[in-house]
Structure formats: C-alpha cells, structure tokens
C-alpha cells in the first residue's frame, strides 16, 4: 500500500479502489502500519460497495461521493469487507484480519476510517466532493509537506 514505493498501476476495479483508499489515508497519520493497512482495505471495501451500487468500474470508482462512503462505512462496513474481492497480496490478508476482529477491534478500525473521511469531508465544505478530488488533495498536501520538510520550513519539525 502506501509504504510500497513500487506500486503497480491499477488494472482491476478492486485495485482502483485500493489505490484511491490508499491516497485518502495518506492525509491522516494512523496508529501504525497494521492499522493503516486495515483502514485502507476497509475504505477500499466500502468504496467498492458504493461504486458497485452506482455502476462505476475501473478508474471511475473515484467518482463516488465521499458522503456515500461515509454512509456505507457507518451502515454496512463489515458486510462490505466480507464481500470485497480482495485477493492475497492485494488486501486479502488485511481483509481476513478485519473479519477476525471482535466487535470492539473492528469498531476501532472503523473509527479510524471515519476520522479519515471526516477530515476530507470537512475540507470539502458545502460542495459535494468525490473520492478523486479528496485523494488528489491528499496527494498534493503530502507532496507540499515533504517539500517544506526538505527545505527546513516544516512547522512540525
């Protein structure tokens, strides 16, 4: 996922969902690599569910509205994870780990995913925001943050 510097270009709808979810998560620091990977797979599963119900495939999954993801995340996250097409090496291990969590553990990952979406929704303001727009903004922010840090003008460092 985001830690993988040699990420392949997405080919399948699921790979596009993973890629978009990974970009969304870049904006929000999470507790650790395991939680980050689980949040990416959870958001990808929710995105896959939203995209499927809207008839979006391939790169068009990023046209899904963020508020639709937030709704499915709250109402049917575990079901979305159960039915997502995550094969080994492309979220399959994280999918199984998510499904093995007890209610409390799953709620923790769900809460972290909700925080990621809430941050993007807050940035969107009153206008409708798609996954593509939010992922692009997250990527640009990450690049600018890296450039500021390299120049020694990072407010955190």
What would your notes on this structure say?
With 157 residues, the protein is mostly helical. α1 (13-25) crosses α6 and α2 crosses α3 (66-83). The longest helix has 22 residues, at 33-54. It is built from six helices and no strands.
**Biggest β-sheet: count, sense, barrel?**
none
Number of E-type strands: 0
Bulk shape: globular
Distance, first to last CA: 25 Å
Structural class: mainly alpha
- Radius of gyration (CA) equals 15 Å
Q: Counting H and I runs of at least 4 residues, what is the number of helices?
A: 6
Q: Give the strand content.
A: under 5%
Helix content: 55-70%
Features:
single chain; mainly alpha; 6 helices
Give the gist of this structure:
This protein is mainly α and 157 residues long. 66% of the residues lie in helices and 0% in strands.
What is the topology?
Elements: H1 13-25, H2 33-54, H3 66-83, H4 92-100, H5 103-124, H6 131-150
Helix pairs in contact: 1-2, 1-6, 2-3, 2-4, 2-5, 3-5
């Amino acid at each position: 996922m985001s830690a993988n510097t040699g990420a392949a270009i997405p080919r399948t709808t699921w790979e596009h969902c993973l890629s978009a979810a990974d970009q969304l998560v870049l904006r929000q620091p999470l507790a650790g690599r395991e939680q980050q990977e689980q949040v990416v797979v959870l958001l990808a599963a929710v995105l896959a569910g939203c995209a499927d119900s809207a008839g979006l495939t391939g790169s068009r999954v990023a046209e899904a509205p963020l508020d639709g993801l937030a709704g499915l995340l709250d109402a049917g996250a575990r079901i979305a994870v159960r039915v997502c097409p995550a094969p080994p090496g492309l979220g399959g291990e994280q999918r199984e780990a998510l499904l093995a969590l007890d209610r409390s553990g799953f709620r923790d990952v769900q809460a972290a995913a909700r925080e990621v979406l809430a941050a993007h929704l807050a940035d969107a303001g009153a206008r409708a925001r798609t996954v593509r727009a939010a992922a692009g903004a997250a990527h640009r922010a990450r690049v600018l943050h890296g450039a500021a840090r390299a120049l020694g003008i990072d407010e955190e460092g």
